[in-house]
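DOMAIN: structural biology
WANTED: fold as tokens
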Amino acid sequence: MPIKFKPTQKTLVRGTKSVKVEHFYIKNTSKEELIEYLNKGQKPKIKQKCMNELTRRGIEIVWKTPTEE
């Protein structure tokens, strides 16, 4: 099964009363969203998943310390 970025979300479509299931797989997540989670996220397990996905895509991560102005 593919790696998930967020839990699966079920929403009710109001007109038809059918349930729409949306999966958040990490391979479908944009690069900007993964980098943003690395900078602001809290869970180390998901941060590691993001780093693994970025290296799989061939994106090199350069860590910089934030400078206070």
In short: The two ends are 45 Å apart (CA to CA). Residues 44-56 form the longest helix (13 residues). The chain has a mean pLDDT of 93.
